[in-house]
Design a protein that fits this description.
2 domains; Pep_chain_release_fac_I; Mito_Release_Factor_mL62; translation release factor activity, codon nonspecific; Double Stranded RNA Binding Domain; 168 residues; mainly alpha; elongated; 49% helix
């Protein structure tokens, strides 16, 4: 039985990009599906016959060291940041059983992978602080501490003057 799916779902599954990715330093969002192994298993949880009959849970896996569609720095960062998802064979494993339909879970797996790569890439793009920057930050912290202590002293003197007036 074929279901009428929304156009964006069809585009998402069709555009999981089967072309080869560039070897540039930045990730362009293209994940070559032919280089990634997909496994389908029975999902867990409520759902009656759908859960018992249809293998809707999706697991994608690929060897991080062989992912030539990622830059070397991204591969190293993936291995360190997502070490809890890498098995002893060096395969990164991402699974999804969010929906009752297999193709949506496939798209979800690739979205998870893509967002993890983008997050790692954004973290790599952050500017490293130099010694000059650290010096400026220390000076700002010292000035802020002085202002805070002056405010505390002023408040304390104000309260002390109120107490002196009451003791008469």
């Amino acid at each position: 039985m074929h279901r009428n799916l929304p156009a964006f779902v069809l585009r998402a599954t069709r555009n999981i990009q089967t072309s080869t990715a560039s070897l540039s330093a930045s990730f362009n969002g293209v994940i070559p599906t032919e280089k990634i192994e997909k496994r389908y298993t029975l999902s867990s949880g409520p759902g009656g016959q759908n859960v018992q009959k249809n293998a809707t849970k999706v697991e994608i896996r690929f060897k991080v060291s062989d992912a030539d569609w990622l830059s070397e720095s991204l591969r190293e960062s993936l291995e360190t940041k997502l070490a809890h998802r890498i098995n002893t064979a060096g395969e990164l494993i991402i699974d999804s059983d969010r929906t009752r339909e297999r193709h949506l879970n496939v798209a979800d797996c690739f979205d998870k992978l893509r967002s993890a790569i983008y997050a790692i890439e954004a973290e790599q793009g952050k500017r490293q602080t130099s010694e000059e920057d650290e010096k400026i930050l220390r000076e700002r912290a010292a000035v802020a501490t002085q202002h805070r202590l002056q405010d505390k002293r002023r408040t304390s003197e104000k309260k002390a003057s109120r107490r002196a007036a009451v003791e008469l």
